[in-house]
Amino acid sequence: MKYFALKIAYNGASFSGFAPQRTAGIQSVSETLESTLLTLDIDSPVIGAGRTDKGVHSLGMVVRICAKDCWDSGRLCEILAPKLYPHIKLRAVWEVDSSFHPRFSARARSYLYVFSPHSMLPFFTPFIARESLGDYRALQECLRLCVGEHNFALFSKTGSSPKSTIRTIYSTHLSPRIYAGQQCYVVRIVGNAFLRAQVRLLLGACLAVSKGIITKDDFLAQRDAVRRHYSIPASPQGLYFGKVWYGGRF
Asked: Is position 111 annotated in a ligand binding site?
């Protein structure tokens, strides 16, 4: 038996999320991968580096599968890629040892969030969120306050029960961009790991600070797990699972 890592990009609007969901008629990313692998006589569970909600996209999700010894990375990529396209793009395949785990072996991972306060053309709406922005500098400052090791328990979806809610965010970056002639903004967040819905809840609260809905002190109290002041997540459209690091600088 061989083990392979697959790097994939996908359009989250086409799926119920990465992991199986109770959504009638819509497959998850992992279910789609598993059913497609079965057409190649590869019966393998798909283990991912993270999980994305419905509507959330990926630029570089890494998953692990196992296959018979007759497969090699080049042949697997050549045959599997056209079967997954167009909703899933197979970007790379490489062989790994059995100890490799896409989630637990990762040193860091990143998310990108693309949003605009303006109405976009309809074919951009699944990929660029419409979110109003108040004070740009306030948003920038609030994102900087996310950096460091903190107890993000109050920035996670209820119902999840991780062993620890302590996470480390290594960096955040906010930059203005022009897409399709409209003013947009891109947020990049890099951390060691993220709780369920943590990124969307953090972004929702940071945007709320920029609009004066909550104060910076309110945000800090929630960041430090003292009191929840804001619980409306940013919309999933425009959120991308970016990249996973298993070594090197990030």
From this structure: yes
**pTM to 2 decimal places:** 0.94
Beta strands in the chain (DSSP E): 2-10, 47-48, 57-67, 88-96, 108-116, 129-130, 148-151, 166-179, 182-191, 239-245
The CB density around residue 211, as the number of other CB atoms within 10 Å, is 14
Look at the block and give the residue holding tokens 């906010």: 174
Using the structure block, give the residue that is written with the tokens 């072996």. 105
How would you write 182-198 as a 3-class SS string?
EEEEEEEEEECCCCCCH
- Tokens 């630029």 found at: 59
Query: From the candidates 53, 69, 135, 218, which is the catalytic residue?
Result: 53
Q: Distance between CA 79 and CA 76 in Å, rounded? A: 5
Task: Outline which parts of the chain fall under CATH 3.30.70.660.
Answer: 107-245
d(Cα 180, Cα 120) in Å, to the nearest integer?
8
107-245 fold: Alpha-Beta Plaits (3.30.70)
What is the per-residue pLDDT across 139-192, written as a single tens digit (0 to 9) for each?
A: 999 999 999 999 999 999 876 667 899 999 999 999 999 998 899 999 999 999
Kindly indicate whether the domain formed by 2-104 is annotated with CATH number 3.30.70.580: yes
- Tell me if residue 43 is catalytic: no
